[in-house]
Write a structure and sequence with these properties.
mainly beta, Hypothetical Protein Tm1070, Chain: A, 33 strands, about 10% helix, eight-stranded antiparallel sheet, 3 helices, single chain, seven-stranded mixed sheet
Length: about 425
């Protein structure tokens, strides 16, 4: 009897070991694919012109709203977006969008993959507001977004917005917090493939008061970097340069600000310990006395905050957003010649630039605190090969219509996914 019991136990253990080995073998044979998720470029609002720079003429694009599921080749390195947003199979080269209203303003941003949440520090909802919040659903199922809006006086305003599959919605900024001159927007995706974009355009009567694309900034954090802020002479009757802050949590934030420029690092008078009341959007006028026309900023806080800087540039204005630390990636540059601005304690960046004719040029950028480099006019693609730790960067682009700030970060990152494997025993038990 005991012998029989031992035999049963032994056989059971052997079967268990065999099944375990089979499972391990199956797992080890699991195959994976590596790919870059497609990115979305925003729609072009009425009266605006929009151009997109991509990595190659073979880049595949798809118009959101099209009844066809096919992607087609761009056939150009830079091309217009007539109205609807586009979905771009960018394959690791981040496209750049540049929008403008002729003779009035211009602004730029990157095209990006869908995000779970996005923070936009910038915009106005008062009587001058003509801007829009653009919600793009590039997926095949309905998407639901929670739009949360903070202002200077009112409690946070929240609303749910449904966006049909393969379509987009436009929401006027003046409808999100009517009458408020200073807002911060958070868009949270509950479901679906959702992207959000903010166009901040202002006007009075028939006169345009400037505009910009507000790039999403870093989620609430205790330390933020805004690398590229233009410092121009103040325009008559125009608002002053301003730092906009929000502490979205349950406590006030004590904040200090450090200006980073070619003149060194310093804390402006009155910015060593400022109080940001919880849930209230607050603006602080800036007027640093600098020899340089561009500077960066480091913001420290005892509570998580979000931040952005508004700056006048001639007849136009620019929103400079906070950015995460720079990482290796590639960005399309056709038709662009921006000034790259880097901030960090010890800046060391290795670049590879593709120019017209297929030639590749290497460039090394080094510096302490802040460093600059102008991208040449014949640039096609710019690759960041090696980047020092804790380095932050943005680009400033000028055009005949206006000025814009573009964050330097990847629109999408390489993603690993498992390839489904068929089990013949399931089909033929």
């Amino acid at each position: 009897m005991k012998l029989k019991r031992f035999l049963i136990v032994g056989i059971s253990l052997a079967l268990l070991l065999a099944s375990s080995n089979a499972l391990s073998s199956s797992i080890s044979r699991q195959q994976f694919s590596m790919s870059y998720p497609s990115v979305v470029c925003p729609s072009t609002l009425k009266g605006l012109a929009s151009q997109v720079s991509v990595g190659s003429r073979s880049t595949k694009i798809h118009r959101v709203g099209s009844t066809s599921a096919k992607f087609v080749k761009s056939k150009a390195l830079r091309f217009p977006i007539p109205t609807d947003p586009i979905l771009v199979d960018a394959q690791g080269t981040t496209p750049v969008v540049w929008q403008s209203r002729q003779g009035s303003w211009a602004g730029g941003s990157i095209c990006s993959s869908p995000a779970a949440s996005q923070w936009f520090v910038g915009g106005s909802a008062d009587i001058t507001a003509r801007g829009k919040l653009i919600l793009v659903n590039s997926g095949l199922s309905e998407s639901v977004a929670d739009v949360n809006v903070w202002s200077g006086t009112s409690p946070v305003n929240s609303k749910a917005v449904s966006v049909k599959a393969n379509s987009y919605e436009l929401l006027g900024l003046d409808t999100l917090a009517p009458g408020e001159s200073s807002i911060v927007i958070k868009v949270v995706s509950r479901s679906g493939r959702l992207n959000a974009f903010v166009v901040d355009e202002r006007g009075k009567g028939l006169r345009t008061l400037g505009g910009d694309l507000v790039s999403p900034g870093v989620s609430p954090a205790k330390q933020l970097f805004i690398p590229a802020i233009p410092l121009q002479p103040k325009v008559k009757n125009a608002p002053a340069q301003q730092l906009r802050l929000l502490a979205p949590g349950d406590a006030d934030a004590n904040v200090s600000v450090e200006v980073i420029s070619g003149d060194g690092r310093f804390t402006p008078v009155g910015f060593d310990n400022i109080t940001v009341k919880k849930g209230q959007v607050m603006n602080f006028p800036l007027s640093p006395s600098l020899a340089s026309s561009v500077y960066g900023m480091r913001i420290n806080s005892d509570e998580p905050i979000v931040a952005g800087v508004y700056a006048n540039v001639g007849k136009d204005f620019v929103w400079s957003s906070s950015v995460p630390a720079l990482t290796p990636f590639t960005i399309a540059m056709t038709g662009m010649s921006p000034l790259l601005v880097f901030v960090g304690d010890d800046i060391k960046v290795e670049l590879e630039l593709s120019v017209a004719g297929g030639k590749k040029v290497s460039k090394s950028i080094q510096g302490n605190d802040i460093a600059f480099w102008r991208v040449p006019d014949n640039a096609r693609n710019l690759s960041f090969i090696r980047v020092s730790a804790n380095t932050y960067a943005s680009a400033l682009q000028a055009s005949v219509n206006g000025f814009g700030s573009i964050p330097l970060l990847a629109g999408s990152v390489l993603t690993k996914s498992a390839i489904p494997t068929a089990n013949i025993r399931v089909l033929n038990p």
